[in-house]
Specification:
heterodimer, A: 227 residues, mainly alpha, Ribonuclease iii, N-terminal Endonuclease Domain, Chain A, 2 domains, two-stranded antiparallel ribbon, 4 strands, B: 345 residues, Double Stranded RNA Binding Domain, 3-stranded antiparallel sheet, two-stranded parallel sheet, RNase III domain-containing protein (chain A), ribonuclease III activity (chain A), structural constituent of ribosome (chain A), RNase_III_dom (chain A)
């Protein structure tokens, strides 16, 4: 609406009045197909696959179950933070709390912990030059993205993420889940543990859970045989 | 030379096992028997990579006066061997005879990145990601770390091997200087040639500073490394406020308030002077309900409104919690506040 075209400005309406008038309007949301200029009903797009975005037990039971199963619930997190952890930036155009900053924090801790862990292993195995472990195969494997993929697939974190599927025709979002979204969720979980339980606990989580899951799986196996 | 000898005496002559002095026990509690040689021998074997390049010995390093001076200037203490400092100043070179600082630099990079990240998130939990990355980069980027290296007083080895031979310098004397293959050559006066191989001086300084941090972690422990980062990296002033720029502040503020279930912003003219003069001044307040979010002044109402919205956004994004203890600080008891993410439109 253009107030100048209505002649309101010329009649001496102050800017305050103009802005207050903008507040008085009815908001209509629509369902079904897109309509130019309309506001979509949030119920239509706040879904990922068949799941509706809500702070409820159904959406969080998987990740809560996993966290309570390890170290007798040492790494448990508040529900609201858990929902943020499993929400990617792509979901709902970033209108809802999402995990980007948590994953940045998680990534910086993850890369520091892998270096410290590798140095620890080199020290334990009495290497001649401890710091040279950074050039070892084991260290390179620890820092590959695929190690986070192993963790997310083994723990089933990939299934619970809220994100926008780039393939809208593929209704089963989980099958086409972008690997980057998966990794970001794992890193965000680490970031959330830092925020709630501190750096030391998060380092323990990385070593005793993330790396341990990869060791238990066949992630290191093919290269172990050639090493 | 006398002072040089005097300084040598301060450092104990006991032989230091190179990089085998992780002084503090590894802080995270690793579950019992998870990664022992007996249980996971093949996994452990993946981490063995003994380089064939020889490392600079402590005895060789002691022959470099500039190295001893740098060691004393940085107050690295007796736990930090001169050999490690010499290695920190040795970058990868084509004809390198000694192990370079690449591994140490990797360790230092990860340590400094984490501590700066956690510090920034603790101090400014609501910064937009682009600004956040820029602010972190202002601490750990090439420009910043290279200036730290210059402040340390690290000298660059600029003499060619033939010049050193002619002046009678030994190889050991150059251990105290930053050694690298420069990507920039000067074939003639006033001409600079940027080659594909080698690194710039700034990058070499960055590697050296990171390596010194890595060395502090290895020989003096994590708390000493954190203290070193606090003193030399985080003590630098970064103007975060100037990094915030908004193209459409009013729309952005509207989206931000809508996401937080707050009333939409309303601009109110609060004061004005000289409306009919050549230099009018208007003061506009941006309100959400009864709360004044920001105030702006300008020579037109539109400008003042926009400034008000920018100030309201700045007040939100530059919020600083009272407790600025980082999560790695054992004395921090309450959870860290991490923002829900910036809004888009």
């Amino acid at each position: 609406m253009n107030f100048r075209s209505l002649g309101l400005v010329q009649r001496g309406f102050s800017p305050v009045v103009r802005l207050q008038q903008q507040q008085i309007r009815n908001l209509v949301v629509y369902r079904s197909s897109k309509s130019k200029g309309g506001i979509r009903n949030p119920d239509d797009y706040l879904t990922s696959g068949s799941r509706k975005y809500e702070l409820n037990e159904d959406n969080l039971k998987h990740i809560k179950g996993y966290l309570s199963s390890i170290e007798s619930g040492k790494y448990q997190l508040p529900d609201r933070l858990l929902l943020q952890v499993i929400t990617h930036k792509s979901f709902a155009h970033g209108k809802l709390p999402y995990n980007e900053k948590l994953s940045i924090l998680g990534y910086s801790l993850f890369s520091m912990t892998t270096a410290k862990f590798a140095l620890h292993i080199a020290e334990v195995s009495k290497a001649r030059d401890v710091v040279d472990v950074v050039n070892s195969t084991g260290f390179k494997l620890l820092n590959r993205n695929s190690m986070l993929d192993v963790f997310s697939s083994l723990t089933g974190l990939a299934k619970v993420v809220f994100w926008k599927n780039p393939e809208p025709l593929n209704l089963d979002g989980a099958s086409a889940l972008n690997k980057t979204v998966e990794r970001n969720t794992v890193l965000a979980l680490i970031g959330a543990i830092i925020s709630q339980h501190g750096t030391k606990s998060a380092e323990e989580f990385v070593i005793n859970e993330v790396i341990q899951q990869a060791v238990k799986s066949d992630y290191f196996q093919p290269l172990e045989s050639t090493a | 030379m006398a002072s040089h000898r005097g300084m040598v005496r301060v450092i104990p002559r006991t032989s230091v096992r190179f990089f085998k002095t992780l002084t503090e026990p590894y802080s995270p509690t690793i579950s019992t028997d998870l990664y022992t040689q007996e249980k996971e021998p093949r996994f452990i074997s993946l981490f063995q990579n003994d380089s064939r390049l020889k490392t600079i010995t402590e005895e060789e390093a002691k022959l470099s006066p500039s190295l001893i001076a740098l060691h004393a200037r940085l107050n690295l203490g007796q736990d930090f061997p001169l050999a490690t400092l010499a290695r920190a100043l040795t970058c990868d070179t084509k004809d390198g005879q000694h192990a370079s600082n690449s591994s140490l630099s990797q360790v230092g990079k990860r340590l400094v990145k984490y501590h700066v990240t956690e510090n920034m998130i603790t101090k400014y939990p609501r910064l937009p990601i682009a600004v956040f990355s820029k602010a972190v980069n202002a601490y750990v980027g090439t420009e910043s770390l290279s200036s730290v290296g210059r402040l340390f007083g690290i000298e660059v080895e600029s003499k060619s091997p033939i010049d050193k031979y002619l002046s009678g310098e030994t190889l050991e004397t150059s251990f105290g200087k930053l050694r690298f293959d420069s990507a920039i050559s000067k074939p003639e006066s006033g001409v600079k040639h940027y080659g594909k191989e080698g690194i710039t001086e700034d990058v070499a300084y960055k590697f050296a500073v990171r390596s010194i941090i890595g060395g502090v972690y290895l020989h003096k422990g994590e708390s000493a490394a954190k203290k070193f980062i606090d003193e030399y990296i985080l003590s630098r002033k970064v103007d975060v406020e100037s990094m915030l720029k908004f193209e459409q502040p009013q729309r952005m503020l509207l989206r931000l308030l809508r996401r937080n279930n707050l009333p939409a912003p309303v601009s109110k003219l609060m004061a004005e002077t000289g409306r009919h003069s050549v230099a009018p001044v208007y003061v506009v307040g941006v309100f959400s309900g009864d709360s004044l979010l920001g105030e702006g002044q300008g020579s037109s109402i539109r400008e003042a409104t926009m400034r008000g919205a920018v100030n309201a956004l700045k007040a939100h994004y530059l919020y600083r919690p009272l407790n600025e203890r980082v999560p790695s600080d054992p004395e921090r008891k309450e959870p860290l506040y991490v923002d829900e993410g910036e809004v888009y439109f």
